[in-house]
Design brief:
The complex is a heterotrimer of chains A (121), B (187) and C (275). Chain A is 41% helix and 20% strand. Chain A contains 5 helices and 5 strands, in the order E-H-E-H-E-H-E-H-E-H. Chain A has a 5-stranded parallel beta sheet with strand order 2-1-3-4-5, with helices on both faces. Chain C is α/β, with parallel strands linked by helices and 275 residues long. Chain C is built from 10 helices and 10 strands. In chain C, a hairpin with a 2-residue loop joins strand 4 and strand 5. Classes of the chains: A alpha/beta (121), B alpha/beta (187), C alpha/beta (275).
Amino acid sequence: MTKKVFIFDDNSDILELCTLILEDAGYEIKTSATSNHIVDQVSAYMPDLIFMDNWLPDVGGIEATQELKSHPDLKNIPVIYFSANNDVSALAQKAGADSYLSKPFDIQTLEEIVKSHIGPS
Amino acid sequence: MKNCEALIIGGSAGSLDVLLKVLPAIDTLINFTIIIVVHRKQGMDSLLCDLLSSKTTIKVKEVEEKEKILPRTIYIAPSDYHLLLEKDLTFSLDYSEKVNYSRPSIDVTFQSAAEVYTNKLVCLLLSGSNADGVNGLITVSSYEGETAAQDPTTAQVDYMPAQAILRANIDHVLTIDEMAAYINALN
Amino acid sequence: MPFTSAISDEQVETLISDVLEQYGYDFTGYSRASLKRRLLRLYSLDKHVSFAEFRYKVSNDAIYFKRFVEQITVNVTEMFRDPSFYRALRYKVLPNLGTYPFIRIWLAGCSTGEEAYSMAIVLKELNLLHKTLIYATDINPTVLEKAAQGMFPLSQMKQYSENYIAAGGIKDFSSYYSANYSLAKFDNELKTKMIFSTHNLVSDHSFNEFQLILCRNVLIYFDRDLQFKVLQLFDNSLENLGYLALGTKETTDFSPISKRYKRLETEKIWRKVSE
């Protein structure tokens, strides 16, 4: 079964690039530019892995991740926090994310972090 | 056209997909330069470059200020700057007002290149949701360059190429499958 | 018949030499592609009927010439543009400068002042503003007048606020300005540490020694030779161990000064490591 990745970022270019890269690597990708109703969004798709940007409008990456991590059915989905902030690791910790990725990143780094969490496609 | 010196490909939403399909099929021994101008927001320039680079053995690089324009190389216009070409065949960057709400603007690069390459220039406009590039194609034609547009029926967003066909007297309308062959024949 | 644009390359050269002769402004080192583009833009904007008429007006109407300079040079700027650059300033550069008893910063090509106010805000938040002076210069006196007022369109504040936050800003951005009809007027306190003056990078000389010089997205409009000349000017104006900051696509590479400067990781910021 194809492994599914859900990417949350308000930058449509990043969503497009990550989609193309990870689809190429054989994963199925869903994207969203908002973290509103995060529980509904994630429940409807049930991904194997989530990428969460820090700067999502309204709810924001931290709050959205915290919501997911306190939900019984969704808390075990690994969340990788990403941001261009200097303190991305502190933010990821605050959010309760499983891991983090600093922007800018390259293709290899992106593929490797996905592989390390959910294995190859 | 034969003995083309420069091919410029412009596009917006939906173009990346086309480029990823076409790049692998381009002959590595092309004798001309390829310049790619796609609308994008600032940031992650290297990721785009990496992605396109992974699809071809032709050298792919992001434009550097005042860099010499070399054949058999694919240049990517950086985000948030207009890309201009100088008569001495170097690149110049410009941070003036957005044109058609865009920076880089496809019109700006097409028009700049038209003056430099005149009848040795080919410009191709892909999928996108605004008409940036259409005026550029008109300028390219007036300098006796060749113009092409993606077949709107194959485009994710057909507005851009459709406007080009409507307003710019395009020489060729190409489906995605026809593009690589067309490009390879420009040598 | 091949197309010709309203102004030919030769006519551009004629205009440049007229301007040099008449007013002493030297545009000969400017990159031609963008210069020509801006000339064509002005020509069209002001609905000139012929190149001869345009040329005559530029040479003989000193007031029009002022507009000419304003329009030929690019004045587009925004607050906290390239947030990662301001982050590097906030976390790496300015804390180092904070060890000096007094900080002198030169912002060359400051345009309408957005960068100067951004810099002042970061300095304030680092508690360094009180011992800093920002020298903000530009070729264009009109933009300096605007910069001195410290008022920017209110409509831009949302974007600037986002930039500010991404740049590591810790306060409520709106606490730095008050709304005045359609303008946002920035705190006077920020301005007290700024000195605005005209300065032409092509013709004017070094006027002080600084610990930080910023010149972002100005060099892109100059040709290689002029870039080297200006970098030399900056080198002459920079203390040892001082910092030089350029635009995201600019570089000191290939210039005569490059060997004495060490680049800070990912940003276009260099530290002078020897005289």
